[in-house]
Design goal:
The complex is a heterodimer of chains A (334) and B (358).
Chain A lengths: L2 H23 L6 H26 L7 H18 L4 H24 L5 H19 L16 H6 L9 H19 L1 H11 L1 H6 L4 H27 L10 H11 L11 H19 L5 H43 L1
Helix pairs in contact in A: 1-12, 2-7, 2-8, 2-10, 2-11, 2-12, 3-4, 3-5, 3-10, 4-5, 4-10, 7-8, 7-12, 8-10, 11-12, 12-13
Chain B lengths: L1 H29 L2 H19 L17 E6 L6 H14 L5 E5 L6 H13 L4 E4 L8 H9 L4 E5 L8 E4 L2 H16 L4 E7 L5 H15 L4 E8 L4 H15 L5 E4 L2 H13 L6 E3 L5 H9 L4 E4 L2 H16 L13 E3 L3 E4 L13
Helix pairs in contact in B: 1-2, 3-11, 4-5, 6-7, 8-9
Classes of the chains: A mainly alpha (334), B alpha/beta (358).
Chain lengths: 334, 358
C-alpha cells in the first residue's frame, strides 16, 4: 500500500472514531440539522485549506490567507457601500485583489527569496492594514460595519431543499477540482516535485518561480471563494474578518496528512482534516464544557495528531531507508 | 392557560410600546444609513400595531413551567468580568425553572465565531438564545435565521442590526456622552486637553461610546482632543499607549477617556508609575476592579451598569416570550429595555454594595 494512501486511511479512521464517540454520547450530534450545519461550517475554512495545501505541498506555507480573505471581503463590502458598481464588477475587483495578493506572496518568496513564513507573515500584516484602510466609516470617521442588503449575496448563504448548503457544495467542488489538478496535471505534479526535492525539480527544468507563484495564486483564488462564502453567511464584514482562519486551515491541512516539509498531501486528505477539526469543535460543544476546557481538549487532540504525524513520518522514512538498503544489498549480492 | 397567554401578550405589548418609544432616539443615533433615517417612523408603526392588537401570534408548543427547555447564552467573551456577570445573572434567574438547561458558549471576541455558535444552537433545537453581540452587523443574518427557525433571541448590551425578540441595552452612546460631560465638568470653563484610548477599531461598542463622547466634546469647544489610539480592549496595551502619550505630550494631558475599565486601569497604572497623579481618567463598564481603583484614587470614574441585573432582565424577557404565543419573528422593530448609565466617581462609589459588584 502506498504511504500516502495509508496515511489517509489513518486520518479517516480517526475521523470515524471521533464521529462514533460523539454520536454515541450526544443525542444532538447525529441529527440532519447538525450535520448540515457542521458541513456548512467546514466550507470557509475548508476552501481556504485547499489553497494552503498547494503551498504546503511545495514545501512552503501561507500565513496570509486569512488576512487576504478579510481584505477581499472588505474590498467587496467597501465597493458595495460607497459605489454604484454592478455586483459583477465588484466581484471582479475582489478577485483581482485576491490575485494581486497571491502574486505579491509568490514574488516575495520566489523572486525576492524571502522564506515563506516570514514573507506571508509580513504580507498578512499588509493585508490587515489594508482592511482598516478600506473599512467602512461612519459620519464621524469611525470604523463601522454594515449589513449588506443584497439578495444575490444573501442567496449564497442559502441551501437546497434538503438542507444542504450551497457553500458545502462549493467546498467539495473546489476540493475535487484541486484533487484532479494535483494528481492529473503536469502543473500539479510540479508542486509535489518542488516540495519533495527543490534541487532535483530545478534540474528537471521545473521553474521554482513559476511553481511558487502558481501555488500562491491558487491559495489567493481559494481565499476569494472563501470570502464569498463568508459574505453569503454573514452578509457583513468587520475588520477582524478572516483573523485566525489561516491557523485553522493550516492545522486541518497537516491533520489531513500534508507534510510541512513538502511533497506530500492532497485535497482529499485536507477535506478529512477539515472535517476532523469541525467535528471536534462541533462535538465538544455538546458537552457544555467551559471555554477553557474546550480549548484544552481541542488543543490536546490536535497536538496528539501532529505528534502522531511526526512519528509516522519518521517511521516511514526509516522504513523506506531500510528497504532501499536491503534492495541495494540484494543487488550487490546478485 | 388562556389568562396566562393574555397576561403575556399584555406584558409584551406594554414592553414594545414603552420600550420602542424610549429607544427611538438611541436607534436614530446608532443605526446607520437608511435604517437610521426611518427609525422614528418604524417605531410609531410598531407601536400602532401593538395598540390595535395586531401582534402576530403562533401556536404555543411549549410550556415553560414543565417542558424540558434549552437556553443558550453567547457572550462576546465569557471569561471577562462582564461576560461572567451577565452569565451569572441569567443563571440565577433561570434557576427558578428546574426544567431549563442553560449553557454558555464563548464567542471568544470573534463575531464570526458567535455567528457559528448561533447556527450551532439552531441546529441543536435550542428554545431560546441570549446573545451579547461582538459586532451588530455580522450577527444580523444569524439572528434573523434563529428567529425564522422559531427561536426567540434576546440580546444584551450590543444587539444585531435586524428586528428580533428584544434587547437589553447598556446605552453605550449615552455612557460616552455622560463621560464627556463629566470630564468637561472637571476641567471647568478653562477646558483642557484629552487623550482617548479606544477599543479595537470596528468594534461596535467602542464606536458607540466614541460617538457619544464626540457629541459631548462638540458641545465643549474649550476641550481639545490631543490624540486617539487603540488599546484593543487590553490593559497591557493601554498601559503602553498611555506611556507613549505621556512621553509625547507630558503635562499637556489633562484627562483620559478609555473605552473600557481594563484600559482605564492600564492607563491609571501608567500615570502613577510616571508620576502623573493629577490626570483625570475615566473608563466604562463598572467592573469591581475599576471601582476599587476609584476608591484608591488610581482612576477617576467609570460608568457602572449592573450586569447581574441585565442578565436577569434578559432571561425574564426571554421566558416571557417562551410562555407566550407572540411570534417574535414578525417584529419589525426590536423592543428595547434601556438600563440607564450611572456615572461613578469617588463621591458615590461607596454606594455600590459588594453584592452588586462584578
Amino acid at each position: 500500500m502506498r504511504q500516502e494512501t495509508l496515511r489517509r486511511i489513518i486520518s479517516f479512521a480517526l475521523l470515524v472514531i471521533l464521529l462514533v464517540i460523539f454520536s454515541a454520547t450526544s443525542d444532538t450530534f447525529l441529527t440532519a440539522n447538525n450535520i448540515m450545519n457542521l458541513l456548512r461550517e467546514c466550507s470557509v475554512v475548508g476552501t481556504l485549506a485547499i489553497g494552503v495545501t498547494m503551498c504546503i505541498i511545495t514545501g512552503g506555507n501561507d500565513l496570509s490567507c486569512g488576512a487576504l480573505l478579510g481584505l477581499v471581503s472588505m474590498v467587496i463590502a467597501n465597493l458595495y457601500h460607497y459605489t454604484a458598481f454592478s455586483l459583477e464588477l465588484i466581484l471582479a475587483v475582489g478577485l483581482l485583489t485576491a490575485l494581486l495578493g497571491g502574486l505579491l506572496n509568490g514574488i516575495c518568496i520566489s523572486v525576492l527569496k524571502i522564506p515563506d513564513f516570514v514573507a506571508t507573515l509580513s504580507t498578512g500584516m499588509i493585508f490587515t492594514g489594508l482592511i482598516y484602510l478600506f473599512a467602512i466609516r461612519n459620519e464621524s470617521g469611525l470604523i463601522t460595519s454594515e449589513t449588506i442588503r443584497n439578495e444575490t449575496i444573501a442567496s449564497w448563504g442559502g441551501s437546497f431543499g434538503n438542507g444542504l448548503y450551497y457553500s458545502t457544495v462549493v467546498f467539495f467542488v473546489v476540493a475535487i477540482i484541486a484533487q484532479v489538478y494535483l494528481k492529473h496535471t503536469k502543473s500539479g505534479t510540479y508542486l509535489y516535485a518542488m516540495g519533495a526535492n527543490r534541487k532535483s525539480a530545478e534540474y528537471s527544468g521545473i521553474s521554482f518561480v513559476k511553481t511558487k507563484i502558481t501555488a500562491f495564486m491558487i491559495s489567493a483564488g481559494t481565499a476569494f471563494i472563501g470570502a464569498l462564502l463568508l459574505l453569503g453567511r454573514n452578509r457583513a464584514v468587520e475588520t477582524a474578518t478572516g483573523t485566525g482562519l489561516e491557523f485553522q486551515a493550516i492545522s486541518a491541512t497537516v491533520i489531513g496528512g500534508c507534510a510541512f516539509s513538502g511533497g506530500r498531501g492532497d485535497a482529499i486528505g485536507t477535506v478529512i482534516g477539515v472535517l476532523f477539526m469541525q467535528v471536534l469543535r462541533n462535538g465538544i460543544l455538546k458537552y457544555n464544557f467551559s471555554t477553557q476546557t474546550q480549548s484544552v481538549i481541542s488543543g490536546v487532540v490536535i497536538v496528539v495528531m501532529l505528534i502522531f504525524d511526526a512519528y509516522y513520518n519518521e517511521y516511514m522514512q526509516k522504513k523506506t531507508t531500510k528497504a532501499s538498503a536491503v534492495a541495494r544489498e540484494k543487488k550487490a549480492v546478485n | 392557560m388562556r389568562a396566562k397567554r393574555l397576561m403575556a401578550a399584555l406584558l409584551a405589548a406594554l414592553c414594545v410600546m414603552g420600550l420602542t418609544a424610549c429607544s427611538g432616539a438611541a436607534n436614530a443615533d446608532n443605526a446607520s444609513g437608511d435604517e437610521a433615517a426611518s427609525a422614528d417612523g418604524e417605531v410609531q408603526e410598531a407601536v400602532g400595531e401593538v395598540v390595535e392588537g395586531m401582534i402576530a401570534t403562533k401556536e404555543v408548543t411549549v410550556n415553560p413551567y414543565t417542558d424540558e427547555l434549552k437556553i443558550g447564552f453567547i457572550p462576546s467573551n465569557a471569561t471577562e468580568a462582564n461576560g461572567t456577570a451577565w452569565g451569572e445573572g441569567i443563571r440565577e434567574e433561570l434557576s427558578y425553572w428546574p426544567n431549563i438547561t442553560y449553557n454558555i458558549f464563548d464567542g471568544e471576541m470573534n463575531a464570526d465565531k458567535q455567528s457559528q455558535l448561533v447556527y450551532d444552537l439552531i441546529s441543536q433545537d435550542y428554545d431560546g438564545i441570549i446573545l451579547q453581540a461582538y459586532n451588530s452587523s455580522i450577527l444580523a443574518a444569524a439572528v434573523e435565521d434563529a428567529e425564522a427557525a422559531g427561536i426567540p433571541v434576546v440580546t444584551i448590551n450590543l444587539g444585531a442590526d435586524t428586528a428580533y425578540a428584544g434587547h437589553v441595552a447598556m446605552t453605550d452612546y449615552e455612557a460616552g456622552y455622560a463621560i464627556g460631560n463629566k470630564i468637561s465638568e472637571a476641567l471647568g470653563e478653562e477646558g483642557g486637553n484629552v487623550v482617548v484610548i479606544q477599543a479595537t477599531p470596528g468594534a461596535t461598542r467602542g464606536e458607540e461610546l466614541e460617538s457619544g463622547f464626540q457629541a459631548s466634546m462638540a458641545e465643549h469647544p474649550e476641550i481639545t482632543i490631543l490624540d486617539e489610539q487603540t488599546g484593543e480592549w487590553n490593559m497591557e496595551k493601554a498601559n503602553t499607549v498611555m506611556q507613549d502619550f505621556l512621553t509625547s505630550y507630558g503635562d499637556e494631558i489633562d484627562a483620559v477617556f478609555c473605552h473600557n475599565d481594563q484600559m482605564a486601569e492600564g492607563a491609571g497604572v501608567a500615570c502613577q508609575n510616571l508620576g502623573y497623579n493629577d490626570i483625570i481618567i475615566w473608563g466604562a463598564n463598572g467592573e469591581s476592579k475599576a471601582l476599587e481603583y476609584i476608591e484608591q484614587g488610581i482612576i477617576t470614574g467609570t460608568v457602572y451598569t449592573n450586569c447581574y441585573d441585565q442578565g436577569a432582565t434578559a432571561a425574564r424577557l426571554l421566558m416571557m416570550y417562551l410562555g407566550s404565543n407572540i411570534d417574535t419573528s414578525t417584529f419589525t422593530q426590536t423592543p428595547v429595555i434601556k438600563m440607564p448609565p450611572i456615572t461613578v466617581d469617588s463621591s458615590n462609589v461607596a454606594n455600590i454594595p459588594q453584592e452588586d459588584r462584578w
